[in-house]
Every structure is written in structure tokens, then in C-alpha cells.
Design goal:
The complex is a heterodimer of chains A (353) and B (80). By secondary structure, chain A is mainly alpha-helical. Chain A contains 14 helices and 2 strands; from the N terminus they run αααβαααβαααααααα. Chain A has one domain. In chain A, 66% of the residues lie in helices and 1% in strands. In chain A, strands 1-2 form a two-stranded antiparallel sheet. In chain A, helix 3 runs antiparallel to helix 7, helix 3 packs across helix 8 and helix 3 packs across helix 12. Chain A is globular and about 55 Å long. Chain B has 80 residues and is α+β, with helices and mostly antiparallel strands. Chain B has a single domain, classed as Alpha-Beta Plaits (2-Layer Sandwich), CATH 3.30.70. In chain B, strands 2-3-1-4-5 form a 5-stranded antiparallel sheet, with helices on one face. In chain B, a hairpin with a 2-residue loop joins strand 4 and strand 5. The longest helix of chain B is centred in the N-terminal third of the chain and has 13 residues. The termini of chain B are far apart. Classes of the chains: A mainly alpha (353), B alpha+beta (80). The interface between A and B is medium-sized, with 35 and 24 residues.
């Protein structure tokens, strides 16, 4: 047990350093990693939304899935399974993304924004914790999406293979793949492909070994008084903060923070939706990618839901910008909270022995 | 008294199993699954029993006995 705690702290420290270094190598500020943003960029590159500023096939995503896949094959933990309420997971995934794009970042980027001195992320964190508490309330009430079942190897292998195809598309850059023009927005800011890919693979391996999860930490602390996963969360924050200070990337404040807005209420509500939805899904967006690599097809469907949510968010004008949230986005987040709550109620069973 | 850990396909399954343990007057706690047992981040039940323990339901993924040398697998759903 003690060893597990040390491992997760070491992994968290490494992940924090890698995330901060990715900004040094060219990723957008406070966005060494952001699963929501990167899935959104990839969705855009495929032409599923047409926000020209955020289109790029992010190798970090590919690396996370492949890293987790390779290590789970080695440790014989690659076990294809699925069939646990896929459509519900798709819908939850879509709304989690809409919540993330209201805030402008997934839970992982929320930590990195905090580590960069972005005070707006404090509102995000408050909402996130509240969302997790709401979700664990349903867990205690008997919430379940029912069990998953064993699937054929091929079924679990499809998504990792798709990632290899994505890598080929990135390198070959055919005309039908969209890339943000140089200086055209966050999509144009990225580290070299090999650096991004290697960073993804390493973090994928670390996250698979430690089961690191941004919502899992707070959930386990609330449900079991078990703080192990939470230490990983804190380790990322501290190590990214230290590297940011060394590199001169630490700029404490609220106004003018990179790829962020200052609307505290909607920062909080966006992350409330994300935290709530992630608990009902059983893991944060990064964790869903790792599980996808391990052959969990329920997580694959969740990731597809996240991508669909990103497409909706940009096609319907739901995503926030540095200017703040949009009216459409506010409506979508409120609808999202209602939908997630209904999913929570409907899938919570009364006590039965 | 032997110590066991049961893992489940869902959090709900774990809660139900603990209740069944308590009905048999077995000491049982829910906790996160130890990493060496599973790469999933689910909930497990650790319980103590002399011989009999609750019948496994559909939700049970595996049951192991805790020994000084490590875990001894008693049941695994994937290997039935």
C-alpha cells in the first residue's frame, strides 16, 4: 500500500514536469496537456467542426492510448470488455465536453492552469469538487450503469489501431485534414510530433500503471477516506508549478490569462457539469483514454461522445473564448446538468437485497 | 479467520456484496481495488470469513484470499 502511494506521487511529479515542458516545446500556454482541448483539436482536424483556430491531430492523445495499450499488453491487463450502457456513456461524454469547453479545459488542464497562476481555475476547482460530491451522492444511492462483459480481442483492439491511422494522417497531412494556419490560434501551437507523441506515450504508461484519475482522487477521498489517488493530483500541481516558476511561465492573476475567461460563475458551472458527469462515467477524460487503450470499449464510446460534444460545442457556438462564455453555451451547460442529474436518478436503484 | 478481497464490475455490486456479508455477520469494508489486483479503478470488498461467504452474484469479477505471500485467486469470472 505504501509502495502504491510512492509510485503515484513519483508518477504525478513526472507528469507535471512533462506537461510544463510541453509548453516550453511549443504547446499553448498552460496546455501541456488538455484532453478536452486536444480531442476538440483532433475533431476539428477531421472536419467534424470548422473552428479554424482549433484544428490539429494531437499526438498526445494518440500516445496516451498507445502507451496504455502497449503496457497493458505486456502486463496482460489488456482485457477487452464493454456493454455497460454505451449510449448513456456517449451522452454523458458529450455533456462532459460541453462543460469542459465552457471552462476551457478538462480537469487535467484545470490543474495546469492552477500551476500557471490562473486564478480563474480556482472557480473551476470549486465547481469540479461540487460536481464530484453530487456524483458520489448518486454512487451512495446505488447508481450503476450495470456491469460490462468480456469482448473479443478485435473489438478492444480497434481503437488503438485507429490511433495509428490518426498518426499516419497527421504525418501524411492529406488535403482533407484541416490544420490551423500558422499564428491562426491554439491549434497552430504544438510541440514537434515526436516530442508530443513521446510525452503521450510516457504519460499513458504512467497513468495506466498508477490508475491516475482527476475525479477518482476526490471520489475515493470522499467515499473511502482513501487519499492515494489525490496525492497524484497534488503531485502534478506542485511539480508543474515549480517548473513553471523556473521557466518563467508562472503569472498569478485573473485577467488576461491564456485561453481562459474571467466569468467565475460559468467557470464553476462548466466544471460542475464535467465533475458530475465524470463520476457517473467512472473516470475523467484522461482516464477514459487510458481505459480505451486497455480494451475498454465503454470508454471508447465515451471518448467518441467527448468528440461529438466538441463538434456540437463549436458548431452550435457553445464553447467559450477569451471573451467569456456564450449565451448558447450557458443554456447547453444548464441542459447538461439536468440531463446528467436525470441519468443519475434513473440509474440509481433503491435498496434491494 | 481468513481474509478475502472480492472485486466487482460495478460500484453498486460491491455495496450489495458488503450488505450480504453483513447479513452473515462477516466483517466487511468497501475500499478502492488494490493496484496489483486490477488495473480498473473500481470498488472492492475486503471481508473476513471462517468458511462460508456470500454467494457470488453476477457482479463479482474475482475473489482472492489474502495470504502473507500475496493473493491467492479463488475465482475469476473471465476464466469460467
Amino acid at each position: 500500500m505504501k509502495k502504491e502511494k510512492t509510485t503515484i506521487v513519483v508518477a504525478g511529479v513526472l507528469i507535471g514536469v512533462i506537461a510544463a515542458m510541453l509548453v516550453f516545446f511549443g504547446n499553448p500556454a498552460n496546455m501541456g496537456f488538455c484532453i478536452a482541448c486536444f480531442l476538440r483539436d483532433t475533431t476539428g482536424a477531421l472536419g467534424l467542426h470548422s473552428a479554424a483556430a482549433v484544428q490539429y491531430i494531437r499526438p498526445e492523445i494518440i500516445g496516451l492510448v498507445l502507451g496504455a495499450c502497449i503496457v497493458s499488453l505486456i502486463t496482460k491487463e489488456f482485457r477487452p470488455r464493454g456493454g455497460s450502457a454505451p449510449v448513456t456513456r456517449f451522452v454523458l461524454g458529450a455533456f462532459v465536453m460541453i462543460g469542459c469547453l465552457m471552462f476551457l479545459g478538462c480537469p487535467f488542464r484545470m490543474i495546469l492552469r492552477l500551476a500557471g497562476g490562473d486564478g480563474n481555475a480556482i472557480f473551476g476547482l470549486v465547481g469540479f469538487v461540487a460536481g464530484i460530491l453530487t456524483g458520489t451522492f448518486f454512487l451512495k444511492k446505488g447508481y450503476t450503469l450495470k456491469r460490462s462483459y468480456k469482448m473479443p480481442k478485435l473489438e478492444g483492439g480497434i481503437f488503438p489501431v485507429v490511433q495509428i491511422v490518426m498518426l499516419l494522417l497527421l504525418v501524411a497531412a492529406p488535403a482533407f485534414i484541416y490544420f490551423t494556419e500558422p499564428d491562426g490560434g491554439p491549434g497552430a501551437k504544438h510541440a514537434a510530433i515526436l516530442i508530443s507523441l513521446a510525452a503521450g506515450v510516457i504519460v499513458g504508461i504512467l497513468a495506466q500503471r498508477t490508475r491516475l484519475c482527476m475525479v477518482g482522487g476526490i471520489r475515493d477521498a470522499v467515499l473511502f477516506g482513501e487519499f492515494k489517488l489525490l496525492f497524484g493530483f497534488v503531485a502534478i500541481l506542485v511539480s508543474a508549478l515549480i517548473v513553471n516558476v523556473i521557466l518563467g511561465y508562472f503569472h498569478p492573476g485573473f485577467a488576461g490569462q491564456p485561453i481562459a475567461h474571467t466569468d467565475g460563475l460559468w467557470n464553476a458551472l462548466g466544471m460542475y457539469l464535467a465533475g458530475f458527469g465524470c463520476i457517473l462515467l467512472g473516470g475523467c477524460p484522461m482516464r477514459q483514454l487510458i481505459l480505451s487503450g486497455e480494451g475498454n470499449t465503454d470508454s471508447v464510446v465515451t471518448v467518441l461522445g467527448l468528440m461529438a460534444g466538441a463538434a456540437f460545442a463549436h458548431n452550435f457556438g457553445l464553447a467559450s473564448s477569451a471573451d467569456g462564455p456564450t449565451a448558447n453555451g450557458k443554456i447547453a451547460v444548464v441542459i447538461g446538468i439536468i440531463v446528467v442529474a436525470v441519468i443519475g436518478v434513473v440509474n440509481s436503484r433503491r435498496k434491494e437485497a | 479467520m481468513m481474509k478475502y478481497i472480492a472485486t466487482f464490475y460495478s460500484h453498486y455490486g460491491a455495496i450489495q456484496y458488503r450488505k450480504n456479508c453483513e447479513k452473515m455477520d462477516l466483517e466487511a469494508v468497501v475500499m478502492p481495488v488494490p493496484r496489483d489486483l486490477s488495473s480498473s479503478c473500481g470498488t472492492c470488498v475486503r471481508f473476513e470469513a471462517e468458511g462460508e461467504f456470500p454467494e457470488r452474484n453476477e457482479e463479482v469479477e474475482q475473489i482472492v484470499r489474502i495470504e502473507d505471500s500475496g493473493y491467492v485467486r479463488i475465482y475469476h469470472a473471465d476464466e469460467e
